[in-house]
User: Which sequence fits this backbone?
DNA sequence: ATTTATGATTAGAA
DNA sequence: TTCTAATCATAAAT
């Protein structure tokens, strides 16, 4: 704390003249000088400080400085404290909080990483696949954000301590009011918070970009893989009488097809409505899938791991529910073969959900959809 | 370039 | 909440 009572070395000269000559020295020389000077000047400064401290006129000087300060203090005080970026900052804070950046990473990083193979039993929200990328990047952003924030905090603290020490030391030579130090600290903090706000802003920007990219990706439609369509159609035509897969079945189908549960739901929604709208268009497809499920066992059914969901694992293939399968196949065959699918044939259709297709199709354009002899009608295409 | 197929989104009903 | 029905927007086919 005290200036070290070190034997003051004879002050060589405040500044050695540039040795380069009349023309300016190059930067290397300047650098060298600076490097050389620092050591010396440190000691020199210490010595000077000590000398000044011990100067007999010091108290007088101090009081004079006090007087001067008294006069100027008023004008200093009038500085308007900036409270402007407060609203902006809180807005950014809220956004970051809402976006989950400020949140302390609630879940352990186990679920998202294992998105490739087996979906854990939890994860009721099936959007994991689409969101995994998003989540990973968000986590990255969050990590960077927090580390930077911490760095700033630390730097701010260090700098504040430094300045405080400096002021304390200076207070021996000149009057330093405690509130002045406070003000100084406040200034430093405001500066650093400005930097923090910049960080927050850019973080927000990154998150928004990421999010918009995700939305764009969602808007872009990618057709499902062959495998996915296969699995979905398989189930659909195997359960034509009641094509409403349960939640478990949906999960299973999603797993098999490499899509999400919501995608499975979407697909079944679309399929039902479109099938109903004109069945004729789908007869070919229906015959393909029903035939394949009944006869062709080598289609896609290679070594399938049926580890999970043992109960209702796609009864279509191995006739686990022979009754249902047979009936559905019959229905399909019948709609395929008969010139007319029994106008009053709702008895067969109305199974568990009370005749899905109950409402009469609203008169599709050309062939009234009730004539599913599709294969032939395609000739006039 | 136009049409069709298809995944996603939306409003509203049960 | 899920499901239907309509609709949007884009991929694929013509």
Assistant:
């Amino acid at each position: 704390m005290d200036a070290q009572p070190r034997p003051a070395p004879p002050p060589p000269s405040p500044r050695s003249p540039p040795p380069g000559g009349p023309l300016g020295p190059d930067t290397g020389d300047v650098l060298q000088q600076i490097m050389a000077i620092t050591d010396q000047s440190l000691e020199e400064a210490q010595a000077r400080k000590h000398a000044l401290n011990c100067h007999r006129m010091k108290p007088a000087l101090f009081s004079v400085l006090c007087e001067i300060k008294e006069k100027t203090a008023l004008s200093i005080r009038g500085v308007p404290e900036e409270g402007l970026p407060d609203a902006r900052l809180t807005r950014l804070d809220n956004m970051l909080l809402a976006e989950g950046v400020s949140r302390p990473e609630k879940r352990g990083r186990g679920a998202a990483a294992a998105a490739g193979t087996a979906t854990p039993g939890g994860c009721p929200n099936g959007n994991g696949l689409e969101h995994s990328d998003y989540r990973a990047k968000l986590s990255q952003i969050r990590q960077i954000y927090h580390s930077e924030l911490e760095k700033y905090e630390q730097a701010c603290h260090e700098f504040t301590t430094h300045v405080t020490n400096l002021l304390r030391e200076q207070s021996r030579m000149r009057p330093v009011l405690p509130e002045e130090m406070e003000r100084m600290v406040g200034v430093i903090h405001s500066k650093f918070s400005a930097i923090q706000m910049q960080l927050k802003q850019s973080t927000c920007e990154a998150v928004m970009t990421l999010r918009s990219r995700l939305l764009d990706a969602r808007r872009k439609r990618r057709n499902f893989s062959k495998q996915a369509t296969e699995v979905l159609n398989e189930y659909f035509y195997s359960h034509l009488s009641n094509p409403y897969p349960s939640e478990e079945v949906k999960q299973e189908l999603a797993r098999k097809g490499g899509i999400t549960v919501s995608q499975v739901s979407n697909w079944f929604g679309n399929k039902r409505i479109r099938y109903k709208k004109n069945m004729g268009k789908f007869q070919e497809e229906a015959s393909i899938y029903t035939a394949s499920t009944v006869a062709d066992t080598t289609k896609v059914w290679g070594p399938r791991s049926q580890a999970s969901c043992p109960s209702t694992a796609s009864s279509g293939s191995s006739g686990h529910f022979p009754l249902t399968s047979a009936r559905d196949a019959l229905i399909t065959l019948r709609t395929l073969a008969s010139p007319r699918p029994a106008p009053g044939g709702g008895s067969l259709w109305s199974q568990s959900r009370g005749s899905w297709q109950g409402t009469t199709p609203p008169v599709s354009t050309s062939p009234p959809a009730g004539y599913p002899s599709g294969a032939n009608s395609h000739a006039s295409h």
Remarks:
- Residues 218-219, 221-224, 262-263, 266-267, 270, 274 of chain A lie near DNA strand B (CB under 10 Å from a C1').
- The mean pLDDT of chain A is 70.
- Residues 261 and 360 of chain A are 29 Å apart (CA to CA).
- The radius of gyration of chain A is 40 Å.
